[in-house]
# Entry
Amino acid sequence: MSTNGTERAKRRIKFNILRYKPGFIDPPRYDAFDVEVDERMTVLDVLEHIKATQDPTLLYRHSCHHASCGTCAMKANGHEDLSCVINVFDLKSDTVTVDPLGSLPLIADLVVDMEAFADRFAPLGMTLVRESEFAKECVPPPGVEAYMRYEDCVECGVCLSACPVANSTPSFIGPAGLAAAYRALVTGDRPAGEVFAHVDSAEGLWRCHGAMECSAACPSNVDPGGKIMALRRELVKYKVKRIFGMHEE
Ligand code: FES
# Structure
């Protein structure tokens, strides 16, 4: 029953969930769960329901439940998104297959190791605290700007999983890392020479095929594909200026 007294629509849906427990289940397999879902439930709601009522060993990661922490990303019927915002009815299917993100090492069930994703930010110093995490009236302590990270990006790993190049080339810096490099360039957080030295390689800017799956999948409208194209344009300009000896740095 909803808060205004109207009955919520309900459907029984079969969830096939990837299971993997190192040392217990080898290789990964799918377990099926039959769940009555109401029209308001998200994939994360369903996982919590299954854990509470059917299988307490199911493992997944989440925190905020409202698309801000980026920890609950996974695939539902093959598409990456934050599981706390995927409405199950919107999937328009009586069977929902839930997988962990791709291109990252699997730890257990739907939990992947995000260290390899975070490593893609590290070379340009993308770190811990978002600018928006400070109240307007607060005076940030000296030096805190060193800990600012790419505004809007919730570092969920969705773009990396959706990227066809990252799926086949694990060494690719990837959409989020390249978008963060563009941010470091335009904000002046890092000298242009340092940014371009990091991204001007076969594993960097030039590996992207422009599929734009990253931008389509990004739940925070970062548009990493657009940032990659913009960074390429800036790199070409930088190289032309170097040829003609027009560089300031
Ligand atoms: S639980 Fe935080 S983004 Fe989904």
The first strand starts at residue 10 and ends at 21.
